[in-house]
Design a protein that fits this description.
Layout lengths: L1 H12 L15 H13 L5 E4 L2 E2 L2 E2 L6 H10 L2 E4 L8 H4 L5 H4 L1 H15 L2 H4 L4 E4 H4 L2 H14 L1 H4 L7 H4 L5 E4 L5 H11 L4 E2 L12 H7 L5 H16 L4
Length: 242
């Protein structure tokens, strides 16, 4: 509550510069739903920022449905930024910063895949979720998720209503542009569509200082596409006047 109050105060002080996401205590899903509603209705926050798991529980578990239902009801954006995979800490230790380089996008991939295969996106078709770092590895290999339904349907459990790749384009999932090269961004857009992409910076972490240039230099984009990625889509989802 303190964090949400302080974020709201900062946004009120600089209304032409900032909007903010609420913090929610997802370890208590009903409380998190209340905090989300209070953040939106009382503090004029624009959604919530969450991690990819809570105390080892996947957020596709039915225990979190009360939170997802509230997010759908409010029509707000939920931004997911990974927190790593603690159970893989030993394997990702050592050189290369692998807990971040591999662990973070892998957690995002797991998070999104569970939302698809465990039926969360089917139960709440109005959800709007933005996944950091281009959605992790999902878009690069999502056709394998389609293939497992086609080749091994008996191993998947209850099937999702659509092929997994369809969820990348249907308006529920959004992705930022932290993928580093024009070719990577071109491929992400080819898998998801321009309408699902928003510029990202990962600020204050110094992964990039040229993200606008990345969008401008990605081949095959029209001026309207670039405007949507750099401004239009995020403004619409976050209720920012343009």
């Amino acid at each position: 509550q303190i964090q949400n109050e302080k974020l709201a105060a900062l946004c009120s002080q600089y209304p032409d510069r900032f909007v903010a996401f609420a913090s929610v205590a997802l370890q208590f899903p009903e409380l998190a739903a209340q905090q989300l509603e209070e953040g939106i209705r009382k503090y004029n926050l624009r959604g919530a920022a969450i991690g990819g798991h809570v105390n080892g529980d996947e957020l596709s578990s039915p225990k979190f449905d009360v939170f997802w239902k509230k997010a759908e009801e409010l029509g707000c954006l939920i931004f997911m930024h990974p927190q790593g995979i603690p159970e893989m800490e030993k394997r990702l230790a050592g050189r290369g910063g692998l807990s971040n380089v591999i662990g973070n996008p892998l957690e995002t991939t797991i998070f999104l895949s569970h939302l698809i295969f465990d039926g969360t996106l089917d139960r709440f078709p109005g959800l709007k979720i933005c996944a950091a770092h281009g959605g992790g590895f999902l878009a690069s290999y999502a056709n394998r998720s389609d293939a497992v339904i086609r080749c091994f349907p008996d191993r998947v459990g209850p099937l999702p209503k659509k092929n997994p790749t369809a969820y990348l384009r249907d308006g529920q999932l959004f992705f930022d542009t932290i993928v580093f090269t024009p070719e990577a961004l071109r491929h992400l857009i080819a898998e998801t569509g321009v309408s699902q992409i928003m510029v990202g910076t990962d600020y204050p972490f110094p992964w990039t200082s040229t993200e606008v240039d990345l969008v401008l230099n990605t081949p095959g984009l029209t001026d309207a596409d670039r405007i949507a990625i750099l401004n239009g889509t995020a403004s619409k989802l976050l209720g920012i006047p343009t």
